[in-house]
Write a structure and sequence with these properties.
Strand content: under 5%
Number of strands: 3
Order of helices and strands: HHHHHHEHHHHEEHH
Radius of gyration: 46 Å
Largest sheet: 3 strands, mixed
Strand order of the largest sheet: 1-3-2
Structural class: mainly alpha
Distance between the termini: 135 Å
């Protein structure tokens, strides 16, 4: 019985897959049926034409057993096929969810990094306000906490465009506030070159002369002339001194904590490039003032230079005559 079922299944496969190939084998004798006639576009017929022309297939049914029909897939195979389909859908959904989660995590990390670079801290929206304040204070260094003055004073005289956020906390520190940079800003090569040139200048000028108490430094102006090496021993000593200084600088040149926040550093750079605002010191040590540059220039001309009781306007001839005299 099992042999008959296997043979029955093989015949079904031959009918489903090999019969179209036999009908359209290159070089085979052609019949007048629509199976072998070319389609409307000039190409030979395929499985679509075979399905649409069942009458032509009946002439080949004599080679099949009488009453033969294609075997339907069993219920178990259908269940396995449906299960595989469901698994593919689940895996596709899981891959899509993982992709969306990775994209969201990347965007949130980028936003958090931008906020920390701008303000020095990024608040957590899932936490209450008091908890975010505690986290902000905990991430500050001791230098930043001690360097924050308690009496911030800043006068805003901008009548049109308000200054950027954080200006009051920056200018409230005072215009004489000592800024602590993360790394030293001096150029060691420039300093060493100037030191070596000063040593050579003194050797060339005062070598072999006795000390004179009448030497007045104010009478001697540095010309900036580059002096050449005068002695090998002095040149070796200067080279060793330079190498030792550079070694110590590399050893101790480490990034330290600064007394300004990232937002305040950005404001300093923006104010240097911006010509719309100007910052001046108020009278009687009342703090810094920020206002428009055009307003400052206009009031300076009207209230000070335009005061005829203090200033007098001169013509071009009078100005040149007084300069020559």
């Amino acid at each position: 019985m099992s042999v008959f079922r296997s043979l029955y299944h093989v015949v079904g496969l031959l009918y489903d897959y090999l019969l179209p190939l036999l009908l359209h084998r290159p070089g085979a004798p052609c019949c007048e049926s629509s199976l072998c006639r070319p389609a409307g576009n000039g190409k030979s017929g395929g499985p679509d034409i075979l399905q649409n022309n069942l009458e032509d297939i009946q002439q080949f049914s004599s080679i099949l057993p009488p009453g033969w029909k294609p075997k339907k897939p069993s219920r178990r195979s259908q269940q396995r096929k449906a299960k595989r389909k469901r698994w593919k859908e689940l895996l596709a959904d899981e891959r899509r969810d993982r992709f969306i989660l990775n994209e969201a995590t990347t965007k949130l990390s980028k936003y958090k990094r931008e906020q920390e670079e701008l303000f020095g801290f990024c608040a957590n929206p899932n936490l209450p306000l008091w908890k975010n304040k505690i986290d902000y204070i905990n991430q500050l260094t001791i230098d930043q906490i001690n360097a924050e003055p308690s009496n911030l004073t800043c006068h805003n005289y901008c009548d049109e465009l308000a200054p950027p956020p954080g200006t009051k906390r920056l200018l409230g520190k005072g215009l004489k506030y000592c800024v602590k940079y993360p790394v030293p800003t001096n150029d060691i090569n420039l300093s060493l070159s100037r030191f070596e040139n000063d040593v050579l200048r003194r050797i060339v000028t005062f070598l072999g002369q006795e000390d004179d108490d009448n030497y007045i430094p104010e009478l001697y102006i540095k010309s900036g002339w580059p002096f050449k090496q005068v002695d090998d021993e002095i040149e070796n000593a200067l080279s060793k001194f330079r190498a030792e200084v550079e070694r110590n600088q590399r050893q101790y040149r480490r990034q330290q904590s600064t007394n300004l926040t990232p937002l305040q550093w950005r404001l300093l750079k923006d104010f240097k490039k911006n010509d719309y605002y100007t910052v001046i010191e108020a009278d009687k040590n009342l703090g810094a003032c920020i206002l428009r540059l055009s307003t400052y220039t206009e009031r300076g001309i009207k209230e000070h230079l335009g005061n005829t009781s203090v200033y007098k306007r001169l013509s071009v001839e009078e100005m040149r005559g007084r300069m020559q005299s």
